[in-house]
Amino acid sequence: MPSSPYLTAMRPAYGTGTLADVMPTALAALGIPSRGVNLRSAELHGVRRIAVLLLDGFGFHLLGQAAQASDTVGAMHHGELGTLTPITATVPSSTPISLASLACGLPPGEHGIIGFTVRVPDTGDLVTHIRWDGAPDPETWQPEPTCFEQADAQGVVCTVVSNGTFRDTGLTRAIYRGADWLPAIAPHEVAEGVLAALARGDRSLVYAYLPDVDTAGHFHGIGSPEWLEAVAKVSEAIDGILTGLPRDAALMVTADHGMVNVTDRLHVDRRPDLTHGVEAVAGDGRMRYLYAAPGAVEDVRQAWTAAVGERAEVIGRDEAIDRGWYGPKVTESSRERIGDLVVACRGTFAIVGVEGEPPHVARLVGHHGGLTAAEMAVPLWSYRNG
């Protein structure tokens, strides 16, 4: 993984181009007024069918390496096919936050899915959004209209093409309301599903998801043979969609975050002193939320600051909000879900060994969730047929 400048901090580009603007751009092209920035107004003018393919972990600064495994990705990266621009993820740069930002067309401060794991204010329980079993109630936890609900209300046929095991999860109920579900797992199945869904109705909006690159990066690292194989695999979905893309349709490809190969870890389970005054540790390895016992915030801040040193920054909830990490507006319910303290990792450092997390998480090579350009910058690539 390259060092600087990809490991320097990058601010989320709210108001100019984040994942929260991708679906509003698609809605605008389909004639539906929507919140957010229109990122492709001229290029998508007049299309009646749009597919948005999200490749998990396919960060913008990884495209050069990814091009080694796919001629299509190489053509995208070098400007020989379609239109490629960098946008940013929202914060934290992790899957559930990014998917919610994309599907709802809102920054995390408004949709409220504001961490990989957060504490439920009313109960003190932890909810891990990616493994959400339905409690708390998804429609209450994330009450804002999704982009699919907005499109459906205007007569656009909406479809999600993804693994069927995700269909009834809490995250799906929170962010994909308004769309039908078409199960597909393998890249060729996803491509076939996207093309079938694009043919539905007079106007159609399709969202598809593939996790392969992210999974390979977590377990084997960016640039590994397994990672390159995953890139080649998911590029088959792009090729398949382009081959059958209708004349009045467009394809948009983006990612939820990038990734860094971690070289330095703090194991919380080996540091019992770091749990003094801490009621819960949440978030993920690159951005942790600390929920302190009453009156213990400053003691916790000092202990964790000493433990992480220059490898991370420990700041209060209000400061994180004031820095604009979660968007220009943060609702009171969203604010309550953020930890009393936020630990933002720098460089290639991660905080692991947290109670309640699967043991394998501490051994993962690739991580994300932080504020480096490697994690925050994501591609927005589009191709219009006709």
UniProtKB/TrEMBL annotation:
<dbReference type="Pfam" id="PF01663">
    <property type="entry name" value="Phosphodiest"/>
</dbReference>
<protein>
    <submittedName>
        <fullName>Alkaline phosphatase family protein</fullName>
    </submittedName>
</protein>
<dbReference type="InterPro" id="IPR017850">
    <property type="entry name" value="Alkaline_phosphatase_core_sf"/>
</dbReference>
<dbReference type="InterPro" id="IPR002591">
    <property type="entry name" value="Phosphodiest/P_Trfase"/>
</dbReference>
